[in-house]
Amino acid sequence: MVNLELYRVFYTVARCGSLTKAAEELFISQPAVSQAVKQLETQLGTTLFNRTHRGMELSVQGGKLIYKKVEDALGLLESAENTLIELKTSATGTIRVGATDSIFSNILADKIAEYHEKYPAVKFDLLTGTTLDTIQQLKDNKCDVVFLNLPIEDKDVMLSGSVSLLSDIFVASPRYAELRNTVVPVKRLQEFPLLMMDLNTVARRAVDAYLATMGITLQPDIEVANWDLMLKLAIKGMGVGCVPREYCRKELESGDLFEVNITPSLPVRGVGLALPKNVPIPFALREFIALFK
Fold this sequence. Notes:
The protein is 42% helix and 24% strand. It has helices at 4-16, 19-26, 30-44, 63-89, 101-118, 131-139, 202-212, 227-235, 249-254, 283-290; strands at 49-52, 55-58, 94-99, 123-128, 145-149, 157-172, 183-185, 194-197, 222-224, 240-244, 258-263, 268-276. The longest helix is centred in the N-terminal third of the chain and has 27 residues, at 63-89. The chain is rod-shaped and about 105 Å long.
């Protein structure tokens, strides 16, 4: 088995040309240096140095033959170590982020821009999909971090708390003016066309699970795969939509939509951050995550 320390001692002695100087540079005793050289010579079965009154000289048939290769090998090892140190202390490389389109647009876009201002050398690889899709991407090592709709339970990933809160509400266009300025029981919404997310989304499951605790089941007329489409349909008067308030502030402020005051109101949920288990977090990724603390 290769003993790297023996080769490190050999290289230092050859470069310094002296056992004493090598011992000083390596912070070990001169006898220890001499013993290491002898051990390597025994291991290789050849003399590596000629001991002269001027010091230690590489032997023609031993030390000179391997010196350059040992120098190159130690240089490669040092470069490998520096690469790992750099990952821990500087922001370089690429951060692969997974999230839904809405989370990218409403939560991550500003943070990514802020981070880029501070660390312009870091590149971003943005992968979109449903929450369940992005979790699978994380497990398949296609993402370094994912931002997902909560609640979610998956023992194969490491959830790192909530980075943003979402308040699910029902919204409608002026076409449904009778719902404005009044308190509407949630169950009564079934009297109107309903727009809701697909059943395979975390957001829809969370709403359905909460309403089920009160014995309420809403059957949507239209199910959609993303919030942008829902908002467009709601603005066109296609129905009453269930969407996070944080995702429709512009439409509420413009008056294209209004919030239906329901009772009981839906519980606040969150957007969480998940990382792969048992994987070291590089400095660049740690700095990005810190923006959400």
